[in-house]
Specification:
- By secondary structure, the protein is α+β, with helices and mostly antiparallel strands.
- Helices cover about 20% and strands about 25% of the residues.
- The strands form two sheets. It has a five-stranded antiparallel beta sheet with strand order 3-4-5-6-7, with helices on one face. It has a two-stranded antiparallel ribbon with strand order 1-2.
Length: about 110
């Protein structure tokens, strides 16, 4: 809710927008090249991925995007403003060969 919780502004709306919005300055071709051998390499090279301020983003279109934070053991905090949804995946290892953010996005999109 752009930094707002139950009518109280917890962090500034400007910072909430700035820290999670798409940033193409670091997303030049090859920026995600060290992920190419992983199942999520195609996702990063799709032109829809971005990374900014420890948030990983998934551009739906120029106006809409989801974003997520990842832990080293496969923990995911996935936020979908367009669906007004938050999903959390806990764990201490990835546990699959797939890409959790894509799986979570697809689950959110089908609900």
């Amino acid at each position: 809710n752009k930094g707002n919780w139950e009518g109280k502004q917890i962090i500034s709306q400007k910072w909430a927008n700035e820290s999670t919005s798409a940033d193409n300055t670091n997303n030049s071709p090859g920026f995600f090249k060290h992920y190419n051998k992983h199942p999520w390499g195609l996702w990063f090279n799709s032109g829809k991925a971005y990374y900014k301020y420890l948030w990983w983003g998934y551009k739906i279109d120029d106006q809409k995007y989801d974003y997520f934070a990842m832990g080293t053991g496969g923990q995911i905090l996935y936020i979908s403003p367009r669906r007004n949804s938050i999903a959390v995946r806990l764990g201490n290892e990835w546990g699959i060969k797939g890409w959790w953010p894509t799986i979570i996005k697809e689950m959110i999109d089908t609900v």
